[in-house]
């Protein structure tokens, strides 16, 4: 079925990624579970023959006997916790041969054995000793501090790499945590809808037909009415696109701040952040927040918490609204203007420019370029199912009198020979230089590369993100799978897809274009290669501090 | 069991009253005063249900105290609520005078509950805590409602004939936000969020509820011949999604042909015109519509004037109205100016997509060069129910129909009260059908069979009576050997031995002779007939 093939085909370029994906995920899961010691054992396995193993076992029995007899007298009896089997399971890879200087009685009965046996023996002994030492240290550490700093570095990686909730839908523990958090904030939890393609079972998938308001009282008491409206508009796809969503969000936050009044015995800077939290959770439940929104929220929270206590409530509210307005103007409006100006330089006479989907920035850039110049250029609008956003781009461009051609994404290899530039929008730019954008973008970039057509990406710097992502699987968004159902003469072939157990629909929203497929990123700071994202982020961080 | 729930309810009402002076009777008190005797006779399952509900309520109440509701967040200056609910319960029931001459329409018993209970219960289920009820004084006196919402009664004097729009205008000072207007005769199990979400999502001016009208299967009592009651048909035009309301016309306003303005077809080349839809009289309206009503005093009815006006206004731009004004002759000009344009009431900051006009990729239409939504500022939406119960009780036939449907609805609601009241004394339980409702203190004799019927409280039904498809109100006496079929029997009627009644309406305080035989008749007092 075309419906099923389309999304898979569109993320073609990242098909090669699973290898990379595992490398990306592995450190996280490895650090999380304590399974690391089993791996070296497997590596050591082939080294020891069966005889050696038998020998080892005998040895251990003897050791045990001895230790049991010594137990009464010997000060360093092994802890009951240290299993004698441990040396075999977790042998240390680098065992120095110089450890033979310990004259132990256990060595005598095994005198005159092969080198391998001796080595194995020594290793076993060393491990036992090490285990004892560690046990001792642990005992000490409980009493006194000095042992602690040694333990923390081993635990640290598991703490640092905390996965965000929206990519662990298949983990019941994480979901329970989320449910708890939402209950505390009095925000309903949205139920997942339908079956998911295996590779994406860790992502949320919602149905438009079951909005969050189903579970809420009608005059909404917890969530501000404007936020309820915004959430519905997000989830129904009426406000769509990274910029639009961010602008709408900030406008609603302005309204929220205007309607806010600090309760007695509370501080505005603290209380307001706390009041915003359920609203943000609600919006996140309606549709996962975009990177642009995430950045804006981060900014706003910081601004609120940095408010001086001396301000009166009215002043503080006014100031906050002013900062939001500034953010909107500087980061979005003026940035778009700057990008449109620099992109204008890149458009030459008789250019044929290929655009994909509906990017407000790209559309604006093209319209501006058309207005300002005598240069004639032509635009090819590429579109894809199921949203057919390209039609909106087409409408806007044609309205401005720009000469346009409209093709579907499966025809791009036929139009690319005549294309001189590819101009793409972006959802976000990631720290490793990857471009996250509407699904299909990376396919276009890949084919353009094959045809040697330069790929330019327009993106405001407020959409830059510190995240690193090399593939489209780990962090992505699933749209309503019902969008893929096509009505033909009132009949829907995929109508009962939920009943069919062997059929899964995938309606992927974003994909990730690797940096080597993007020639240039046009930002409000000028034109940069996409690998310079970390630099911009660093400079931005310095600025903010 | 009642003890733990009461403090919470009290507390809430006190906090509210500290915010604003209570305008109506505190409902909890009203309920305890009037219907307090109910609390001690409940089945265990009902008790459990009740407990669960209360614990949830208490939890929310506690939480509310803890983290503060929107009202606190918003403070005094902001909008108080998202919606205000208004129930119109002042209508006289002019289309079923035989019934309403003795009992006012909002008090007509449906499933042994006053008709007004159903819209209120719908609102309560949706989560409303306050409702404005527009009614007449004598109705409120007789009202005995079991609800936890705060009801704010507004009275309309008896001698003034006020339309629904007039009523809304009457209470405009109380209206601070968008309103949800309901008629008191609506019985439905619709998911209210579907109507409200249309309103929210599209930032609509109006969203309303409709349902495919069902043909009355049985003949109403007193109906002569087979001919159907001639209802004026409505023509409803919707777009492809079936949600945008594009066109609305009543047969009465048309002379022989249906005229559709070109401006509609330019914007929506495909329009589905539907007939046979029943308007449920449930409207979500923007605040500015009420403001518009206040200024524009010529509109008296919501359904027949305001709603069609709004639907029409979707396709006339404010500019063209201005031009039209210039061209008109003097006399009409004045008139036009007096009826202000709805556009002047729309507040700009409320419009959809205002923050992001050029940025969103969404568009409601395809195939032309126009902006999203054609820059129309007035937008009307309709939710058409495909299944479920939705009926309006405004004729005798619909009243009978509603009574037939209601047992199912009451069962689905999971109310604490069983269909057969605990105090009813029934000799032969097996003879009472599972879909019958029997009120409190009713006595039913031996070998009496009751099927698909609703029997009020304090009735006496003697032995060997056969009741099928009947509605029997309170304190009715039916003596031995009667056979009742498809009839409505009003309060305090007495039917003597061996009467055989089919498809009749027996008015209040009527007395039927022994072995009387009536088919398809309306038997009411002569004095009432004189009135008509």
Give a topology summary.
The complex is a heterodimer of chains A (545) and B (532).
Chain A: H1 2-10, H2 18-32, H3 38-44, H4 50-70, H5 86-89, H6 115-143, H7 148-160, H8 172-185, H9 225-235, H10 242-258, H11 268-286, H12 291-305, H13 313-346, E1 351-356, H14 360-372, E2 377-383, H15 390-399, E3 403-408, H16 412-415, E4 421-425, E5 428-429, E6 435-438, H17 441-450, E7 455-458, E8 487-488, E9 491-492, E10 510-513, E11 520-523, E12 526-528, H18 533-544
Parallel strand pairs in A: 1-2, 1-4, 2-3, 4-7, 7-11
Antiparallel strand pairs in A: 5-6, 6-10, 8-9, 11-12
Chain B: H1 2-19, H2 27-35, H3 44-67, H4 70-74, E1 83-89, H5 97-100, E2 109-110, E3 113-114, H6 117-126, E4 130-135, H7 137-142, E5 150-155, H8 164-170, E6 178-183, E7 186-188, H9 192-201, E8 206-212, E9 234-238, E10 245-250, H10 262-267, E11 272-274, E12 277-285, H11 287-295, H12 302-313, H13 318-327, H14 330-338, E13 380-385, E14 390-392, H15 396-413, E15 425-426, E16 437-438, E17 443-444, E18 449-451, E19 454-455, E20 460-461, E21 466-468, E22 471-472, E23 477-478, E24 483-485, E25 488-489, E26 494-495, E27 500-502, E28 505-506, E29 511-512, E30 517-519, E31 522-523, H16 526-531
Parallel strand pairs in B: 1-4, 1-6, 4-5, 8-13, 15-17, 16-19, 17-20, 18-21, 19-22, 20-23, 21-24, 22-25, 23-26, 24-27, 25-28, 26-29, 27-30, 28-31
Antiparallel strand pairs in B: 2-3, 6-12, 7-14, 8-12, 9-10, 9-11
For this entry, give a set of tags.
heterodimer; A: 545 residues; alpha/beta; 7-stranded mixed β-sheet; 3-stranded antiparallel β-sheet; 47% helix; globular; B: 532 residues; elongated; disordered N terminus; disordered C terminus
Question: Which runs of chain B of at least 5 residues are low in confidence (pLDDT < 50)?
Answer: 1-79, 319-339, 528-532
Major sheet summary line of chain B: 7 strands, mixed
Largest interface: A-B, 51 and 47 residues
**What is the strand content of chain A?**
5-15%
Order of helices and strands of chain A: HHHHHHHHHHHHHEHEHEHEEEHEEEEEEH
| Binned strand content of chain B | 15-25%
Number of DSSP-assigned strands of chain B: 31
Number of discrete helical segments of chain A: 18
Distance between the termini of chain B: 51 Å
Number of strands of chain A: 12
Major sheet of chain A: 7 strands, mixed
Number of helices, where a helix is a run of at least 4 consecutive DSSP H or I residues of chain B: 16
Helix content of chain A: 40-55%
- Dominant shape of chain B: elongated
């Amino acid at each position: 079925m075309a419906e099923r093939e389309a999304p898979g085909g569109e993320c073609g370029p990242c098909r090669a990624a699973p290898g990379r994906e595992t490398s990306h995920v592995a450190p996280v899961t490895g650090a999380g579970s304590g399974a690391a010691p089993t791996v070296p054992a497997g590596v050591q396995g082939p080294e020891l023959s069966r005889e050696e193993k038998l020998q080892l076992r005998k040895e251990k029995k003897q050791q045990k006997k001895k230790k049991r007899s010594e137990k009464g007298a010997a000060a360093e009896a092994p802890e009951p916790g240290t299993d004698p089997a441990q040396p075999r399971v977790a042998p240390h890879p680098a065992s120095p041969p110089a450890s033979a200087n310990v004259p132990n009685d256990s060595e005598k009965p095994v005198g005159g054995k092969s080198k391998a046996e001796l080595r194995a023996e020594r290793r076993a002994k060393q491990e036992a000793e090490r285990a004892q030492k560690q046990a001792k240290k642990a005992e000490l550490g409980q009493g006194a501090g000095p042992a602690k700093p040694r333990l923390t570095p081993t635990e640290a990686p598991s703490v640092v790499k905390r996965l965000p909730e929206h990519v662990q839908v298949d983990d019941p523990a994480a979901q329970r945590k989320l449910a708890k958090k939402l209950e505390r904030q009095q925000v309903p939890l949205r139920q997942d809808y339908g079956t998911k393609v295996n590779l994406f079972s860790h992502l949320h998938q919602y149905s438009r037909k079951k909005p969050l308001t189903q579970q809420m009282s009608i005059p909404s008491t917890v969530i501000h009415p404007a936020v309820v409206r915004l959430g519905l508009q997000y989830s129904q796809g009426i406000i769509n696109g990274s910029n639009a969503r961010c602008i709408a969000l900030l406008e609603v936050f302005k309204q929220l701040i205007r309607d806010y009044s600090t309760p007695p015995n509370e501080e505005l800077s603290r209380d307001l952040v706390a009041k915003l939290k359920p609203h943000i959770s609600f919006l996140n439940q309606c549709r996962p927040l975009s990177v642009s929104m995430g950045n804006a929220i981060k900014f706003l929270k910081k601004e609120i918490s940095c408010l001086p206590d001396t301000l009166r409530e009215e002043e503080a509210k006014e100031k906050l609204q002013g900062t939001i307005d500034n953010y909107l103007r500087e980061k979005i409006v003026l940035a778009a203007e700057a990008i449109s100006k620099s992109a204008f330089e890149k458009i030459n006479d008789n250019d044929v420019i290929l655009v994909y989907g509906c990017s407000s920035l790209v559309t604006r850039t093209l319209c501006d370029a058309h207005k300002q110049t005598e240069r004639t250029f032509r635009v090819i609008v590429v579109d894809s199912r199921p949203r057919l956003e390209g039609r909106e781009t087409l409408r806007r461009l044609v309205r401005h009198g720009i000469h346009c051609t409209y093709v579907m994404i499966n025809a791009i290899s036929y139009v690319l020979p005549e294309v001189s530039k590819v101009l793409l929008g972006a959802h976000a730019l990631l720290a490793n230089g990857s471009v996250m954008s509407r699904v299909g973008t990376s396919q276009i970039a890949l084919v353009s590369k094959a045809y040697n057509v330069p790929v330019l990406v327009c993106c405001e710097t407020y959409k830059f993100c510190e995240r690193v992502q090399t593939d489209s699987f780990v962090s992505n968004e699933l749209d309503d799978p019902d969008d893929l159902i096509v009505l033909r003469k009132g009949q829907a072939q995929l109508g009962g897809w939920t009943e069919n157990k062997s059929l899964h629909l995938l309606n992927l929203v974003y994909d990730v274009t690797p940096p080597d497929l993007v020639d240039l990123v046009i930002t409000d700071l000028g034109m940069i290669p996409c690998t310079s994202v970390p630099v911009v982020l660093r400079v931005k961080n310095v600025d903010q501090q | 069991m009642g003890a733990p729930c009461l403090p919470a309810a009290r507390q809430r009402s006190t906090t509210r009253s500290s915010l604003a002076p209570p305008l109506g009777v505190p409902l909890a008190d009203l309920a305890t005063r009037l219907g307090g005797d109910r609390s001690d006779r409940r089945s265990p399952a009902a008790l459990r249900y009740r407990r669960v509900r209360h614990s949830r309520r208490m939890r929310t109440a506690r939480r509310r105290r803890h983290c503060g509701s929107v009202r606190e967040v918003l403070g005094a200056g902001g909008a108080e609520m998202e919606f205000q609910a208004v129930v119109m319960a002042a209508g006289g029931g002019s289309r079923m005078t035989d019934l309403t001459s003795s009992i006012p329409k909002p008090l007509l018993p449906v499933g042994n509950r006053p008709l007004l209970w159903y819209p209120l219960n719908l609102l309560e289920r949706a989560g409303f805590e306050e409702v404005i009820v527009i009614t007449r004084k004598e109705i409120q006196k007789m009202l005995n409602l079991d609800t936890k919402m705060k009801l704010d009664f507004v009275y309309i004097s008896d001698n003034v004939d006020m339309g629904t729009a007039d009523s809304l205008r009457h209470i405009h000072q109380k209206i601070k936000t968008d309103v949800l207007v309901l008629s008191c005769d609506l019985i439905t199990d619709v998911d209210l969020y579907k109507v409200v979400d249309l309103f929210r999502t599209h930032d609509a001016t109006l969203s309303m509820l409709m349902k495919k009208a069902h043909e009355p299967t049985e003949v109403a009592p007193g109906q002569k011949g087979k001919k159907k009651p001639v209802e004026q048909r409505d023509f409803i035009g919707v777009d492809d999604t079936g949600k945008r309301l594009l066109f609305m016309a009543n047969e009465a306003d048309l002379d022989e042909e249906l005229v559709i303005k070109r401006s509609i077809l330019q914007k929506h080349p495909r329009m589905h015109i539907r007939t046979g839809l029943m308007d449920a009289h449930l409207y979500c309206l923007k605040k500015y519509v009420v403001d518009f009503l206040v200024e524009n005093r010529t509109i008296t009815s919501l359904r027949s004037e305001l709603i069609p006006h709004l639907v029409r206004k979707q396709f006339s731009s404010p500019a063209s109205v201005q031009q039209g004004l210039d061209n008109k002759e003097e006399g009409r000009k004045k008139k036009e100016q007096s009826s202000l344009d709805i556009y002047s009431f729309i507040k700009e900051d409320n419009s959809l997509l205002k923050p992001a006009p050029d940025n969103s990729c969404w568009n409601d239409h395809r195939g032309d060069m126009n902006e999203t939504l054609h820059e129309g500022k007035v937008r009307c939406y309709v939710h058409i129910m495909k299944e479920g119960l939705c009926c309006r009780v405004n004729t005798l036939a619909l009243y009978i129909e509603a009574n037939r449907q209601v047992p199912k609805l009451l069962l689905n609601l999971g109310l604490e009260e069983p269909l057969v009241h605990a105090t009813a004394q029934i000799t032969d339980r097996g003879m009472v059908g599972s879909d019958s409702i029997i009120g409190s203190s009713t006595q039913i004799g031996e070998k009496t069979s009751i099927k698909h019927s609703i029997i009020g409280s304090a009735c006496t039904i003697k032995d060997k009576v056969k009741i099928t498809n009947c509605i029997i109100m309170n304190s009715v006496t039916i003596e031995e050997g009667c056979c009742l079929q498809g009839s409505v029997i009003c309060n305090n009627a007495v039917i003597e031995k061996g009467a055989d009644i089919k498809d009749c309406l027996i008015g209040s305080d009527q007395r039927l002779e022994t072995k009387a035989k009536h088919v398809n008749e309306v038997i009411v007092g002569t004095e009432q007939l004189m009135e008509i």
